[in-house]
């Protein structure tokens, strides 16, 4: 499998789903009994980050791609049993990324209308969706699981480079009862305890361990980003930092320091705006340094925060 760069082509045409459910897609067999596999929103056998696609839940799965990528795998147990093996392998690899992706199992024998609407030419076929749109070219198979792992590693690198750090919630996770406190995740205990004790350097080290172990862990990435803000601003005089930034509007270090201080003061949009304008005014290594710092602040706030969404739009405008 070759590397598939992320892009933003047009939205998916779902007009084909208005046909009766038993209308076969080109090259697809009719579903047994005419019933779609799975239930709306139900988890597929692959685990907490997989879902069996039906005509009832397809739109909901597309919407889920606004949080983090959704990987659809089209296969046909009737026509190509080996294509279903690829679907299972993708579910296995997706589970290893703990929410960085959601696997959508599309059995075209059960839901031919979806295959027809998506104009699927063959099985197995993998399609990565982001923001409700195809984010790569269709990726044909079959492929061994080692190649699938390598492809997902490339996709994670591209997501990270673009500052896209969203993560899907586990499917079928037990809800928290009303009035009950959500259970703390013990993975973050050491870092959070260090923050509570004011040991910022230790907190950074603990969060870094988590990120190194699992780059797809967005909670750890956000914690690390904010801990680094705290680390960079320790002992800094706010007034002196603001004066230095006012006297040197294109000084990267001075401007990023004030952006960090704005973050700590709750002035998130001011921090984003300052660095976005810095990106707009600078070039080369300085521009890249300002952009990278801004992406770190996006990670600290959270990928689905409306201020981050606006900030990404403004950054794109400043870059292009």
Question: What's the quick description here?
Answer:
This is Putative thioredoxin. The chain has 320 residues and is of the alpha/beta class.
Task: Describe the overall structure.
- Residues 24-157 form the Thioredoxin domain.
- This is Putative thioredoxin.
- Pfam families: TPR_20.
- Residues 1-45 are annotated as: Disordered.
- This protein has 320 residues and is α/β, with parallel strands linked by helices.
- It has two domains: 15-161, 3-Layer(aba) Sandwich (Glutaredoxin); 186-319, Serine Threonine Protein Phosphatase 5, Tetratricopeptide repeat, CATH 1.25.40.
- Helices cover 48% and strands 8% of the residues.
- The protein is built from twelve helices and six strands.
- The protein has helices at 58-64, 81-96, 112-117, 145-161, 189-196, 200-213, 218-232, 238-247, 252-264, 268-281, 284-301, 306-319, and strands at 50-52, 70-75, 102-107, 125-130, 133-134, 139-140.
- Strands 1, 2, 3, 4, 5 and 6 form a six-stranded mixed β-sheet that branches.
- A hairpin with a 2-residue loop joins strand 4 (125-130) and strand 5 (133-134).
- Helix 7 (218-232) packs across helix 11, helix 8 (238-247) runs antiparallel to helix 9 and helix 9 (252-264) runs antiparallel to helix 10.
- The radius of gyration is 23 Å and the shape is elongated.
- The two termini are 30 Å apart.
- Mean pLDDT is 79; it is low at 2-45.
